[in-house]
Specification:
The protein has 194 residues and is mainly α. The protein has helices at residues 5-21, 28-35, 39-45, 49-73, 78-95, 98-103, 113-139, 149-169, 176-191. It is built from 9 helices and no strands.
Amino acid sequence: MVLTERQTEIIDKSIEIIGTKGIQGLTIKNLSKEIGISEPAIYRHFESKTAILISILDNFKEMATFMGDMMEENQGPAVDKIEFMFSRIIDIFSQTPYFISVVFSEEIFRNEAVLKNKIVEIMDFNEKTVEGIITAGQERNEIRTDIDGNTLALIVMGSLRFRVKQWDLKDYHGNMVKEGGELINNLKLILAKN
């Protein structure tokens, strides 16, 4: 979906509001004040707050799809693919920490079926991407085979999620790139065929 300049501005400001005030702080009224346009002007671009959130989640899905396509084209070793993928994710979160508040807010979306389904779709896609990399690595004898690919994918993804969420909850104190790099190196050790 191609967004207008104003829609992009609304999305960017929405992510910033969620990052600073939480999802409950994202109201059309707050959004219009932050951007400096009227509430009806917001509604000319998005029919509701839910539509804004769907657009934000669609943007994350597009990024995940792009990353998944890159991983499919990459013929390198599985651990290198995971390192590249996770390094890019850590870079994105380090540069734009407010994204964390949206990406990891699935509990807040639980009562809104369309948003919950979008989050599940993104999570399933990411899990399938990582599991595919690991399974291919197992078939090429690069990744340990004593643990199934799905379980390894969950361990790897859960570890990254925990580290990123912890950094978020600590108000971005610490060096996420450094800590993320250390985590990636340890995950490579866990995944490696002995």
